[in-house]
Amino acid sequence: MLETHLSLEDFEGFLKEGTRPSRPEHNARVLRHLLRDCAVCHDRLSTFGASQRFPSGLFNRWPETADPPGEELSAASAAEARTYDYSQAFAGAQRAVSAFLAPDGEMDVATEPLLVSLAGLSEREQIERVSASEAYSHPSVIRRLVEQSHLSRYRNAQEMLRFASLAKLAAEQAPPTNGETAGVKAADLLARVWGQYGSALRVGGHQLEAQEALGRAQEFQLCGTGDPALRAWLLEKLTALAVTQKRLREAIELAEEGGEIYRELGDSHAFAIIEIHKAIALIYSGETEAALRTLHQAIPLIEYAEDPYLLLAACHNLIRCYIDLDRPDQALMLYSEIREIYQDFDDPLILLKTAWQEGKLLCDLGHLRAAETILLRTRKGYMEKGLPHEVALVSLELATVYVKLGLVDEVRRTVITTLPIFHALRVKLDTLAALLQLQQVADQEQQALEIVRALSSRIESLPKKNTAR
């Protein structure tokens, strides 16, 4: 029990860490304090508001053609959302609440020292350490391993998979649970472990294994408390996999189901995440206007302080929508607005993607030599990272620049250097033939650009099988 009321700083820390097990004892005490209906703290919480969303000056202006994001969300909530079936959640509600609030011995493990002890060890040594000590099988430690995997998703795909694998290993070695409450709680934890493991496999390019892992996660989730937030979280992971595998209609349906749950739960940031996945599926499906509306609805809901990468990803896709809709001026205006947030990132893959987008913008606006310089540098960066899918697409963008400049020899040289990349992607013979045809029509701008657009669409439709090394 807390001795004093919570300050706004306490609230901010709790809201950032409340879903993470790094401070489980403190978070549990805070939650119990709030559940006791403390009027003072509820008033303070209401004043905390949503003031922590964006960097200053960002998205103060919206295109006149877009509906106000908040109004669109409320209208969708009232008129469009189908009612989610909460029967399973209600059936397990009492068990879930009891499992959360009851003392369960989860506060007696020093989590951080156990994680620190893994740092600096080789992957084999980490596996041996986790296998040899029962302490790593404690639920709070497993949750922290899952969290570390999630935090690595933008920085290092191998690290993301390594932490997820350690979480799975620890969970598999956990002692059997006794009692119904402990059983359903363990099932929820296993669902989250396997869900994160599946997500890490997807990011690492192992799609079949990812699908199997997420299937296991669903099985565990069905045996758990029926927590709708966990269900929505798994739908988010399944949506991302469906987008990667280009099962686009299925991805949109999964995102809509997960979005309905998040909307009912009032979790606006999580709603934004799954809506952005939906927007990407819409872009790949050629439904660019719908993707634009979806992104305008999602972006104002993003908690920037919690996940700045998400805002950047959303903006990249919004810019792409404007480019695909032949509105480069709006794309450039948005690009200039979000440049201030790039200083928060030093991830090489994010910087490469940003440069690629800048090159596309410059090409569309007619600054062809500047576009060439940036795209050449971007292609080299992707080649060094071992990402043939991205290399192929940037190469086709370069071919567009050379076609517009009338540099026939450069077009043909680009085709020759791109052929091995296409072979590495195992494209169909007709795609290789189209690439070779580009050499023959390099001096015919309209026909050459049509071939480049068709080739780009085919490469984008390929499931990604590689990732950064």
Would you kindly provide a brief summary of this structure?
The protein is mainly α and 469 residues long. Helices cover 71% and strands 0% of the residues. The chain is built from 24 helices and no strands.
Descriptive terms for the model:
globular, Serine Threonine Protein Phosphatase 5, Tetratricopeptide repeat, 469 residues, 0% strand, 24 helices, mainly alpha
Describe the structure.
The protein has 469 residues and is mainly α. Among the domains are: 1-49, no CATH class; 346-469, Serine Threonine Protein Phosphatase 5, Tetratricopeptide repeat (Alpha Horseshoe). The protein has helices at 8-17, 24-35, 39-48, 69-80, 87-91, 93-101, 111-116, 123-132, 139-151, 157-172, 180-203, 207-222, 228-244, 248-265, 268-284, 288-298, 308-324, 328-342, 348-364, 368-384, 388-405, 408-424, 429-440, 445-460. α9 (139-151) runs antiparallel to α10. The longest helix has 24 residues, at 180-203. It is globular, with a radius of gyration of 24 Å. Residues 16-24 and 60-108 have low confidence and may be disordered.
Strand tally is 0
Q: Stretches where pLDDT falls below 50 for ≥5 residues?
A: 16-24, 60-108
**End-to-end distance:** 48 Å
Derived from helix and strand composition plus strand pairing, the structural class reads mainly alpha
Number of contiguous helices: 24
In helices, the fraction of residues equals: over 70%
Give average pLDDT, whole number: 80
Which fold name corresponds to the CATH topology of the domain at 346-469?
Answer: Serine Threonine Protein Phosphatase 5, Tetratricopeptide repeat
* Name of the CATH class of the domain at 346-469: Mainly Alpha
The coarse overall form would be globular
SSE string: HHHHHHHHHHHHHHHHHHHHHHHH
Biggest sheet features = none
DSSP strand (E) fraction? under 5%
CATH architecture of the domain at 346-469: Alpha Horseshoe
C-alpha-based Rg, rounded: 24 Å
The oligomeric status of these chains comes to single chain
